[in-house]
């Protein structure tokens, strides 16, 4: 069983149980939206000593939790499972996700940075992504940035240092599909 060095931040006990079926891993559970100061301090400590990977559910509450953690630990790594891969019989979440999707997400983590923007809003608009859900989803998938709207995509692309020419190159592959 593969050992993951970083501590993985998840929402609950069932997420931990699912991950421990797949990896030798330590987790911090946020108790869902009940994340509090004590949990945030645990995450900060883990980030300093071992590093952390945020793996929250691919839904709005999961994004809200992720945002709270980013505010405290901006150098955290991020793993994203697609919503379509995390739908169970009655629920949406990491515990319901296909095991292959979890493994892929953890093998392809991303780390955001607050450096200067590499892509302006005007350049982003010139790529004709606004209103084209398929193109937007393709870029989210290609750069492994989870899911979201145009504004979130713009922000995340900048956070990983993607330029307009990088996107144009990726979109050539999309067009040639």
Automatic annotation (TrEMBL):
Residues 5-90 form the Toprim domain. Its EC number is 3.1.26.8. One of its GO terms (molecular function) is metal ion binding. It is found in: Cytoplasm. It catalyses: Endonucleolytic cleavage of RNA, removing 21 and 42 nucleotides, respectively, from the 5'- and 3'-termini of a 5S-rRNA precursor. GO terms for cellular component: cytoplasm. Required for correct processing of both the 5' and 3' ends of 5S rRNA precursor. Cleaves both sides of a double-stranded region yielding mature 5S rRNA in one step. This is Ribonuclease M5. It comes from Sharpea porci.
């Amino acid at each position: 069983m593969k050992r993951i060095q970083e501590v993985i931040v998840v929402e609950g006990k069932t997420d931990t149980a699912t991950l421990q079926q797949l990896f030798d891993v330590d987790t911090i559970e946020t108790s869902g939206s009940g994340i509090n100061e004590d949990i945030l301090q645990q995450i900060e400590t883990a980030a300093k000593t071992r590093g952390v990977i945020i793996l929250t559910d691919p839904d709005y509450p999961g994004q809200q939790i992720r945002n709270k953690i980013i505010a405290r630990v901006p150098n955290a790594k991020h793993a994203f499972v697609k919503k379509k891969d995390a739908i169970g019989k009655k629920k949406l979440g990491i515990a319901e996700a296909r095991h292959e999707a979890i493994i892929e997400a953890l093998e392809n983590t991303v780390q955001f940075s607050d450096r200067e923007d590499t892509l302006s809003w005007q350049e982003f608009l010139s790529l004709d992504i606004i209103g084209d859900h398929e193109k937007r989803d393709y870029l989210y998938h290609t750069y492994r940035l989870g899911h979201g709207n145009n504004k979130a995509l713009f922000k995340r692309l900048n956070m990983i240092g993607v330029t307009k020419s990088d996107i144009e190159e990726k979109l050539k592959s999309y067009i040639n599909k």
